[in-house]
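Section 3.1 - Work completed
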Amino acid sequence: MKQVVIIVPKGYANLSSVTGAFQILNRANGYWQKMGNRPMMQVSIAGFVTELKLDDGFFSIHPVNINDLKKTDLLIIPSVSHEYDRVIKENAPLISWIKEQHQTGAEIASICTGAFLLAATGLLDGKTCSTHWNAAADFKRLFPNVDLQTDKLLVVEQGIYTNGGAYSFLNLMLFLVEKYFDRQTAIFCSKVFQIDMERNSQSPFAIFQTQKNHGDELIDKAQTYIEANLAEKISFEHLASKLAVSRRNFDRRFIKATGNTPVEYLQRVKVESAKRTLEKGRKSIFEVMNEVGYSDDKAFREVFRKITGLSPLDYKAKFSKETAGVAGSLGLT
């Protein structure tokens, strides 16, 4: 029987990612036994803390002592506080324990920002992972040797599994259920918990952050200019000259400050503006395209899909107020 441990770090753990993982795996185990099989796993919640109070004390977790565990086959790291430096510092013993368990054969799955604790072990160096798109800047700052791909909902790396943000961990749980049990059990859990098994990207849910806390005043001016002139054809050669800096130096400073090339930044700002307009639902795709400075509908669709994973039309159908109103009138909300 596999020993599965949901880890409780010191400081903060997202309650839903602990209880959700616990409930889904136990429900899968119950269904597995109902089908005439022996229990597949025993799920424990453990940590170096005896109690963790969450959400202003309304909830608390009472994990078992992690030192009492003799064997682990799968470790699950829940989402953690956004004070990443503090969380890593306070959980040094837990981070060492996670690394030791992996070295003795345990697989590891991290939920959302739990990837920060996992990356702190060094086990992700030179590998690919995912985490919440909103935590990308901090993750890249702390772990430059990890290939972060926030568009991915789930990344598999030699017995290490990471997933995107928030409730996308439900898809990670279905993946683990299928891996440890079988496809039929995963489908059962998908139906019982009403989780869409086909989700594979968090790109449609990402909100582009305009990265203004870098301290480079010249690049801040460039960003402000870009954001104020989305409908215009921007020449970065001209913009660099206007800011009295060479194009090469402009590009270098822009990438260092924002993590994007000027062209990538312009595309992302245009698409983010287009997304907000599409969500309101009042304008056509053609009107939105022109509003953000595109005259070629093919180019607009390609850039939009590259960033969001959806076509402009599909995005509007998924998120617009008009669509929500129609669904409501049909009793579908």
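Second construct:
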Amino acid sequence: MMHSTTTATCTAAERVVVESFLGGGDHKTLADDVLDGLTRPFKELPPKHFYDAHGAELFDQICDLPEYYPTRCERAILTDRSAEIVALTGAAELVELGSGTAAKTRLLLAAMHEAGTLERYVPIDVTESMVRASARRLVEEFDGLHVHGIVGDFERHLEHVPPPIAGKPRIVAFLGGTIGNFTPGSRRRYLRSLAQLIGPDDFLLFGTDLVKDPKIIEAAYDDSAGVTAAFNRNVLTVVNRELDANFVPESFDHVAFFDRDREWIEMRLRAQRPQRVLVGKLGLRLTFAAGEELRTEISAKFTPERIRGDLAAAGMELVDSLTDEDGLFALNLARIRA
């Protein structure tokens, strides 16, 4: 049985609790994904393995690139509409999946604080140092705020989210368009699991990148400075370091294209020449033909019909969809279907 460890920070200790639900078995996730994904006829790895320390730094750089609109657009929506979201929901609690540094979330917390409703923030992230650092900053910034941090995977550890505050609405936030990294069937299954966190007075707030001119989408995933290419190749560096593999990342080209039929972007790594790779810790020998591709990410783009259909399949309904002024990105507010 997995046991949690509960500790309090030394700063505002009475208002911060951090629980970790990552155990020894969690370190096997990369190994399992490599063994499963790289032995398929069409090789692939899930995008969660991009985000080691260096990958996180590269992604922060991507978010500041002129071509990469999603983060900029989502932040603009939260800047303009957070007070409206709080007024509509009356939320006293914010649960955030994949919280990271809570940079954008702070806009919602500030609006809740301004409205006098803010009581608790529940960040969920696999990086314990990030959960602790953001918790310390936020309790110092917002008087009376309690933080209950969960160190865990937002797919596997939802059952550890604490019960809602009695009689107080909560918002469960899944920002950044991450929902688009799931294939359609998996996406609907995950939305059903999120519905278990939401009571009749609670709300789900999630970001979706919208279908638009493919040139705009492709530029966001293949920037002129090559930062996204470095981010994509970094997954091979992660496998090299963690599993004693001998990939040569520079011998793979970054590929990003919009699949017009499925309406999602794909990122791949394409072998420049025939290659043999040994994954030492798994005793796994891989071959790549010249031009063979390894898929590292899909990112679905959404229409209003797709958003409503996915929610309906999870027993939820759309309350409102807030977009940036150019209609590139949407923040969607949903609740359990009455």
